[in-house]
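Support request, please re-run this one:
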Amino acid sequence: MSALGRDLPKFKYVTIQVDSELMVAHMQLARETASNALNMQMWGELKSAVDALGAREDVRVIILSGRGKNFCGGIDLESVGADLIREDTCPARTRSSLLYRIKYMQACFTAFEECRVPVLAAVHGAAYGAAIDLITC
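Re-run finished. Output below.
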């Protein structure tokens, strides 16, 4: 596989390789020190990566895998969990903020579902919680 292809953004927690000859993209969760648990930055990177790959004419399939011992440890409760349960002095603002975050995370998964090319998950090791949602989009 070639290194990062043309017009592909670089990410901190998601790596991308494209083999233009085979028309295959490999997207890898790259947060192995945390079992590839999804923090908010990783959610956004996943959506951006699948959108970018889905728009390429030299990609006919995306293979999603996880680097390290596990495929994905689900939602990173240390970072995302604190954001999801944070309370405001106004209960309505708390609920509104929670709704916004949930819709944002769902939009990231919906990008996989709406991608013009099939996405195949190469699952190994553990796949907990949100990882199950991710691989069944």
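Strands lie at 14-19, 24-29, 61-66, 119-122. Residues 3 and 17 are 6 Å apart (CA to CA).
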